[in-house]
Write a structure and sequence with these properties.
Layout lengths: L1 E6 L2 H16 L3 E6 L5 H4 L9 H9 E3 L4 H11 L2 E5 L2 H8 L11 E5 L5 E6 L6 H12 L2 E3 L3 H4 L5 H7 L2 E3 L2 H12 L4 E5 L3 E2 L6 E3 L10 E5 L10 E7 L2 E7 L5 H13 L8 E7 L6 H10 L3 E4 L1 H5 L9 H7 L5 H9 L6 E9 L2 E7 L4 E2 L2
Parallel strand pairs: 1-2, 1-4, 2-3, 4-5, 6-7, 9-11, 9-12, 10-19, 12-13, 14-15, 15-16
Antiparallel strand pairs: 5-6, 8-13, 14-18, 17-18
Pfam family, one: CbiG_mid
InterPro entries: CbiG_hydrolase, CbiG_mid, CbiG_N, CobE/GbiG_C, CobE/GbiG_C_sf, GbiG_N_sf
GO biological process, one term: cobalamin biosynthetic process
């Protein structure tokens, strides 16, 4: 997690320095800033002896903010996972207000008073991780954590926390809110999963395994596609477990790659958010169309040698032409299966789909839901 800390007074500055060093020791990527006329003299390196301890500490630790706090906050919303304001809640609220968009993308925001008595989770408590960061900061400062999320206060299952922990995409944030409201009201919420699970399913969720059993109207379905509709109102949680194996003619553009991958996924109603990575042969490692496609979606592109692909056991759609060009009879199916098997045995769920000079195959890795 990339964290930015900002303070506004000398006492706040001292607290932020403590947080900076402890969080860095805990392997966070941390940057610290100060915006105060009272600390400006301390931070002015030109007034310090370069051999002094103060100079070395300041040079390694704090960065003075010359721009407006609004401009600074806007930059941090773009390049950080979390922002810690050491100062008044009012400063934090006014600073972040122009940039707040969605709990799916907003960074975590935590406020610490300058005396270090309270650590307050202000924004993106669940998905952004502000609640967890608040607890950790409170432990470091021996402060009182302040968390106002209803499911936390009532010790109820939180679907957004569960989704984040399991690396799942939430299909409908409004429906996720309705599920939280139902749980808080003591209503039944169903649970269905295409995957096995570790740990105990929370008491608030009703496990629905039989097609003919009576189900709640609202429920959660952990799956890679939208083929099933187990509840009248179904919230889909989509894990990133699909490796897309790709082959294509040299010079194929991104739009063609995208179109054919989409058609292959549509066969099983698999959304692109289920895609963990794209895999191919190393001959394609510089293929612009594939690279642009992966960059746009921020997913890894991995490649294998012909020898590595040849060693993948199984029966595949063989092509003599492909073998003459690449040294292996099938690229997309073998690459998809090999990519999905790095953490266990994967399986093909969509065999070779070919169109417009592009071949696509889909494989799913072995994966489990985690309630622990």
């Amino acid at each position: 997690m990339k964290i930015a800390i900002i303070s506004f007074s000398q006492s706040g500055y001292r607290l932020s320095e403590m947080l900076y060093w402890v969080l860095k020791e805990r392997s966070y990527e941390v940057a610290s800033y100060t915006k105060s006329k009272y600390t400006k003299k301390v931070l002015d390196e030109s007034q310090l002896d370069e051999d002094s301890q103060d100079f070395r500490s300041v040079k390694q630790f704090a960065k003075p903010v010359d721009e407006s706090i609004k401009e600074w906050t806007g930059r941090r919303f773009e390049d950080c996972d979390a922002i810690v304001f050491v100062g008044a809640c009012g400063i934090a609220v006014r600073s972040i207000a122009p940039f707040v968009k969605s709990k799916k993308i907003d960074p975590a925001v935590v406020v610490v008073d300058e005396q270090g008595q309270f650590a307050i989770s202000l924004l993106s408590g669940h998905i952004g991780g502000a609640n967890e960061l608040t607890e950790e900061i409170a432990e470091i400062l021996r402060a009182q954590p302040v968390i106002t999320t209803a499911t936390d206060l009532n010790d109820k299952f939180a679907v957004d926390v569960f989704a984040k922990k399991n690396g799942c995409f939430i299909s409908d944030m409004e429906l996720a809110k309705e599920i939280s409201a139902a749980l808080l009201a003591g209503k039944e919420v169903g649970f269905v999963s295409d995957f096995p699970w570790l740990g105990e399913i929370p008491d608030e969720l009703k496990l629905c395994q039989k097609e003919d059993e009576e189900k709640p109207e609202i429920g959660i379905c952990v799956t890679t596609g939208y083929l099933e509709h187990p509840f009248v109102h179904t919230l889909y949680l989509i894990p990133r477990v699909i490796t897309t194996g790709l082959g294509c003619k040299k010079g194929t553009d991104k739009e063609t790659v995208e179109s054919v991958v989409r058609r292959a996924c549509d066969e099983l109603l698999i959304p692109s958010v289920a895609m963990e990575q794209v895999a191919s042969i190393d001959l394609k490692k510089e293929e612009a169309g594939i690279l642009e496609y992966c960059k746009e979606r921020k997913i890894p592109f991995i490649t294998y040698t012909a020898e590595e692909l040849q060693e993948v056991e199984g029966t595949y759609a063989s092509s003599q032409f492909v073998e003459n060009v690449t040294g292996v009879d099938n690229v997309c199916e073998r690459a998809a299966l090999l990519g999905s098997s790095k953490d266990g045995k994967g399986r093909l769920i969509q065999r070779k789909y070919a169109k417009d000079g592009v071949t696509v195959a889909l494989a799913m890795k072995k994966w489990s839901v985690n309630f622990e």
